[in-house]
Design brief:
Glutaconate Coenzyme A-transferase; 3 domains; 21 helices; 619 residues
């Protein structure tokens, strides 16, 4: 549709259009990379415009002006999120941060709690029916525009036309400013790729094929995405689309076929990235843009089965409290979409949330896993909301666990040099027992090579991995679940109590070289349960290691003991052992057969009473 033919009276040059903004006005600005740059420049550069209150989600263009001493005399910036460009201004107190859940910001406009006089937005050229598209900035822009008395739109041919509830008719725009310019681009920062890759490796383990993902604001969540390239049929329901998604779109990793809600479509609200990404979105029916009050509504999010939320944090305390928007008393980012999606994922069938963060800050000098949040730090996500925390040192599963277990889980994934200090601080606060041993100070990334899985005939998958300090409680439950005869075969007497002291010593004795313990785990709903444990430890002969296996009774005969034995042999060989020894009761024929099957040349000696000693050389 030709603008000059349909509504010539609405068309104004930028400098004339901003004259419509009266002094004292409350002005909404479109979000992030969709902001109308030319309108912002014209408004700021017109000295007659005075005493303006600005409301915006992500701000970029204002960063060019905010440090001018005269700017704050004319404009008051109120931002719902502090972008990288505006961080210095926030540190210097030049902006006013409004903490709010993203899903609830539109209601602040709709209810007139925040009144708006003018909305400055950017749209695509109209189609033949007169509809323009808000393109890459739908989020809170729809509500901001609908609730402003006056709407001034910059019509930019470079704005993509996006599908969904992104359209606005020319009749609903008061003044039109045709002006072509490149959109704001938000390109990812190059940060420590080694840490990113390690974190991504752990996140990859948590994301199953067919899951629906939400990925939060920030460098780290975006950087994790390309490392999911081996997944299949992922779906997307997320506030923000970035360049990190492009490889997954291009290689058909994201198909949206398995989504339970709005299948075959990416549900989103906002896009911030490169021109290449904007071209990919342009008129692409895969994308369904809606306002933040829909996309971020936890009840809507929960309609997606297996919804996994991936976001980041500045620091996490030992009880699981999350800080995302401030460093001490300095506001750094914002609440954004994290709480909305964490709560939505918790209500999703099979869903959960992941908080991913590097273990340290300031070049390794400061731990991000802390005894308590920094003074002044804001708690965006409560300890009752958090599910899983991931650093480059591993995965901490917190949901449903007490403070004692949370401390051990989080200390275990802290940087090795801070682990002992964290345990000591936890003791001072009586979070854990006074005799609690700290996790190993090793970097245990090499343990990733000691993970495996097998599929049972039932279709269930059993995962095998090395024992960790955080497994203490699960190990206790495993031993108490065994039948009396199984316990007798393992310990040679009818053991009745599996004390905390005994279990703590068990994991503390594992150095993952001379001593190793492998556990087999099966998924039970949202939690995992140990069903098998296999160990080896140094024997009197330093060339041999003493091995022991125990499998829960209902899983006997399924090959779990044999599989653990193969894993233990591989690890023992790497650590220069020449073979295994084992002491068993002669009536434990099932385990004797397992050893004889793998080591047909095993030497068997009859010992005192009913004991049998087996010596099994690897070669």
């Amino acid at each position: 549709m030709d603008l000059k033919t349909y509504c010539p009276e609405k068309i104004l040059p930028p400098k004339t259009a901003v004259k419509k903004i009266k002094n004292g006005s409350r002005v909404f600005i479109g979000t992030g990379c969709g902001e109308p740059q030319q309108l912002i420049r014209a408004m700021v550069e017109d000295p007659s415009i005075q005493d303006i209150v600005i409301y915006q989600m992500f701000s970029s263009t204002f960063s060019r002006y905010v440090h001018d001493p005269h700017f704050s005399e004319r404009f008051s910036l109120k931002l719902f999120f502090i972008s990288l460009h505006m961080r210095k201004a926030a540190f210097e107190g030049k902006i006013d941060y409004i903490p709010a859940y993203l899903s609830q910001i539109p209601d602040l406009f709709d209810s007139k709690q925040i009144g708006l006089d003018v909305a400055l937005v950017q749209v695509s050229p109209p189609d033949r029916f007169g509809f323009c598209s808000l393109g890459i900035s739908v989020d809170i822009t729809v509500s901001g525009m609908n609730n402003a008395r006056t709407v001034i739109a910059q019509v930019n041919p470079r704005m993509p036309r996006t599908w969904g509830d992104s359209f606005v008719h020319l009749d609903d725009i008061d003044y039109i400013v045709p002006y072509e310019e490149p959109l704001v681009e938000a390109l990812p920062e190059a940060k420590n790729q080694d840490i990113v890759e390690r974190i991504a490796r752990y996140v990859n383990q948590l994301v199953d094929d067919g899951a629906t993902l939400q990925v939060g604001f920030g460098h780290l969540p975006n950087s994790i995405l390309p490392h999911l390239i081996g997944k299949k049929d992922l779906g997307i329901h997320t506030q923000l689309i970035t360049d990190g998604f492009l490889p997954l779109f291009e290689q058909r990793v994201i198909t949206n076929k398995k989504k339970s809600y709005l299948p075959n479509r990416v549900v989103t609200s906002l896009c911030m990235g490169s021109e290449r990404l904007y071209n990919f979105l342009d008129n692409n029916p895969m994308f369904y843009f809606r306002g933040s009050d829909f996309v971020n509504d936890p009840n809507v999010i929960a309609k997606n089965d297996n919804l996994i939320s991936i976001s980041s944090a500045l620091e996490v305390d030992l009880t699981g409290q999350i800080c995302t928007d401030s460093k001490n008393y300095i506001f750094y980012s914002g609440i954004g979409d994290q709480v909305d999606f964490i709560r939505g994922s918790k209500m999703s069938k099979g869903g959960f949330s992941i908080i991913a963060l590097p273990s340290t800050a300031q070049n390794g000098e400061v731990s991000r896993i802390v005894p308590h949040l920094s003074e002044g730090a804001g708690i965006a996500t409560t300890r009752g909301d958090v599910d899983v925390v991931v650093t480059e040192y591993g995965i901490a599963e917190l949901n449903g666990k007490g403070i004692y277990q949370r401390v051990m889980e989080l200390a275990q994934i802290a940087h090795p040099k801070f682990r002992e200090k964290l345990i000591n601080e936890a003791k001072k606060r009586y979070y854990i027992f006074g005799d609690q041993l700290p996790p190993s100070s090793q970097d245990l990334m090499f343990l990733e090579n000691y993970k495996a899985h097998i599929e049972l005939k039932s279709g269930k998958t059993v995962e095998f991995r090395p024992l960790l300090p955080s497994d203490e409680f699960a190990t206790r439950n495993f031993y108490y679940s065994l039948q009396e005869s199984t316990v007798f075969y393992r310990f040679f007497y009818k053991r009745k109590v599996f004390s905390r002291e005994m279990l703590q010593k068990q994991w503390a004795a594992v150095d993952y070289h001379q001593n190793m313990t492998i556990i087999g785990i099966i998924q039970r709903g949202k939690h995992k349960e140990i069903l098998a444990i296999g160990s080896y430890g140094s024997a009197e002969d330093t060339n041999l290691a003493e091995v022991a296996l125990v499998v829960k009774e209902e899983y006997h005969g399924m090959g779990l003991g044999s599989y653990m034995l193969q894993m233990l042999e591989k690890i023992a060989r790497e650590n220069k052992y020449k073979g295994f020894t084992a002491i068993l009761l002669s009536e434990n024929q099932a385990m004797i057969r397992v050893f004889e099957k793998h080591y047909p040349n095993a030497e068997i000696k009859r010992g005192f009473s009913d004991e049998v000693e087996m010596q099994m050389l690897f070669d």
